[in-house]
Amino acid sequence: MVVWEVLARRRETSAFRVQRWSTNFAMLVLGIVSIRVVLPMTLIQLADWIGDREWGAIAVLDLPFMVGVAVSVIALDFCLYGQHLLMHRVSWLWRLHQVHHADPEFDVTTGLRFHPFEIAVSALYKALAVVVLGSPALAVLIFEIALNSSSMFTHANGRLPQRLDRLVRWLFVTPDMHRIHHSAEVSEFNTNFGFNLAVWDRLFGTYRQEAALECAQIEIGLRLQPGRASSLGSALRIPFEKRTLSSS
Fold first, then answer.
1. What value does the CA radius of gyration of the chain take, rounded to a whole number of Å?
2. Alpha-carbon distance 114 to 30, whole Å?
3. For the chain, how far is it from start to end, CA to CA, in angstroms?
4. Of 11, 31, 109, 166, whose CB count within 10 A is highest?
5. d(CA 12, CA 32)
6. Contacts of 5 (CB under 8 A, 6+ apart)
7. If 0-12 CB within 10 Å is exposed, 13-18 middle and 19+ buried, where does residue 55 land?
8. What is the pTM of this model?
């Protein structure tokens, strides 16, 4: 993804680059630690444990194994779409999610930038989804690989040919589609919530085809004091500040 950004950059970036990258990578490390704190096992281990007990919707439906895997992967993606909506609709969740949106630029490292408390909440949410669905371990493995890969891809500052972008986004989220979600305009960042599959936004009326401005003119991030969201300490404090930006 980094090579793609270098060879086919979509937008010029300059905002506190080294500090931003350091902060975003530090967020990744803190997020990994937070998962270990809240979950005693990995999601794949949890799926194995659930499978041994034949719990969850997949077991109740008694689906063929590979059908159950496919249904689980799609259902988990829908659950993440729902979680993303909640992150924008519920005030205390939005406080956490603001840290991701506060990145003043949009590149592959933005996909690493989540407050450790948001990562912890997300891990618990995904664990609940795995239990309710009774997702097979293989489905969880596929979903986690797809989720982490798409997080890098959809946040990449890389250029796709316009026709290809329009074709791909009928099914999958593209960087140009997700960049609209990172606009500073409320009417734009409350659209395009999908992670992997773009169909949920189309089905539930949250899809936006274009931003009001051309790509190069889109204001990325939240309207915070310049540089404030780029340092690790400042970014970690955002959810706890008395004044916080509304998501609506």
1. 18
2. 9
3. 32
4. 109
5. 30
6. 107, 108, 156, 157, 158
7. middle
8. 0.92
Cβ contacts of residue 33 below 8 Å, gap of 6+? 116
pLDDT given for residue 228 in this prediction: 63
Q: How far is CA 221 from the centre of its chain?
A: 15
For the residues 211-228, what does the mean pLDDT come to? 82
Q: What is the dihedral sign for C-alpha 184, 190, 191, 194?
A: positive
* Look-up of token digits 């989804």: 129
**What pLDDT digit, counting tens, does each position of 155-167 carry?**
999 999 999 999 9
Integer Cα distance of 23 and 107 in angstroms: 13
Q: Whole-angstrom Cα distance, residue 20 to residue 228?
A: 10
Domain ranges for the chain: 16-239
| Rounded CA separation 157/5 (Å) | 5
Q: What is d(CA 41, CA 224) in angstroms, rounded to the nearest whole number?
A: 37
Total length of the chain: 248
Sequence-distant (≥ 6) Cβ neighbours of residue 116 within 8 angstroms = 27, 30, 31, 33, 34, 236
